[in-house]
Amino acid sequence: MTNATIPTSTVTPPDILRCAYMEIVVTDLARSREFYVDILGLVVTEEDENSIYLRTLEEFIHHNLVLRQGPVAAVAAFAFRVRSPEDVDLAEAYYEELGCRTERRRDGFVNGVGDSVRVTDPLGFPYEFFYQVDHVERLAWHYELYGPGALVRLDHFNQVTPDVPRGRKYLEDLGFRVTEDIQDEDGVTYAAWLRRKDTVHDTALTGGDGPRMHHIAFSTHEKHNILSICDKLGALRKSDLIERGPGRHGVSNAFYLYILDPDGHRVEIYTQDYYTGDPDNPVVTWDVHDNQRRDWWGNPVVPSWYTEASLVLDLDGNPQPVVKREDPTEMAVTVGADGFSYTRKDDIEHGFKLGHTL
């Protein structure tokens, strides 16, 4: 991984359908099971002493999240489903031409998934592409299994990378389309949201030291489900797991909550963004100084949300080195004595709504 320009592959990229699952390494499988199953209500597809396979209530493929016991908390794979078996071949050829390391396993890297290719992509992230997958029962009509905070779908990933424009071009070449971004008047890009399915994003790029995983996001049907999760965490005396929110984003227009698992992996609970499927869907660009871009109500962003993220692994299972962002950071230009923000851009006085959380 370098900051050099990423070459353009002459090979047709794979036809990616959607983000499908993430494999994360956790240091205490029992504590992680309590968080993801007992508290959040994800469904156990299968488990053994070293791993747990979890899915959301409306999912029909084997899993959306794999928890694997290991010595270092990190992300082993960001996995995308492709349209056909031939697209796995295309993915392998595409990344080989880019000069990336690839590994192919006809029987899959995890249970429930068949022929797959994993790559260390040009940004240093471990991507996986697969088509073959075991089907399981979709529990959408089993309302007796739904808790008030039911997680119904995997929505997106969010990746931290030092050079957002470089990552944006790479993902656009791969077939992703940008829906929203954050920039300043000097042309610095702080974040971008990119999609394959017809929502705001399947993954996002957040400018910062990377490669690291910012969060994985699961959807609920409605915002009251998110409030129920907050109430449950409070009742369990686990409110310290809430990092940020609940609130409504400006970017994506979605209602959100950010919580931290026992290893500090960040999970977003997310609902009610908007349709983006038309070919001429316009890109929404936010000013980095717009006080409502990250929270529509103008609430402050806690510093840890900007600075903390999970390590990612190479194909040998070793943590990738973290490269420092050289461009200005979003936190540096919007928080603190030298930062400013606005709610109404033409107001004479600018000021940042600090509240009491910083």
TrEMBL record:
GO terms for molecular function: dioxygenase activity; ferrous iron binding. The keyword Flavoprotein does not apply. It holds the Pfam family Glyoxalase. Its cofactor is Fe(2+). The keyword Oxidoreductase applies. InterPro entries: DHPA_dOase_Mn/Fe, Glyas_Bleomycin-R_OHBP_Dase, Glyas_Fos-R_dOase_dom, GlyoxalaseI/FosfomycinResist, HPCD_C_sf, VOC_core, Xdiol_ring_cleave_dOase_1/2. Residues 18-132, 153-272 form the VOC domain. It comes from the Bacteria. Keywords: Aromatic hydrocarbons catabolism, Dioxygenase, Iron, Metal-binding, Oxidoreductase. Belongs to the extradiol ring-cleavage dioxygenase family. This is Catechol 2,3-dioxygenase.
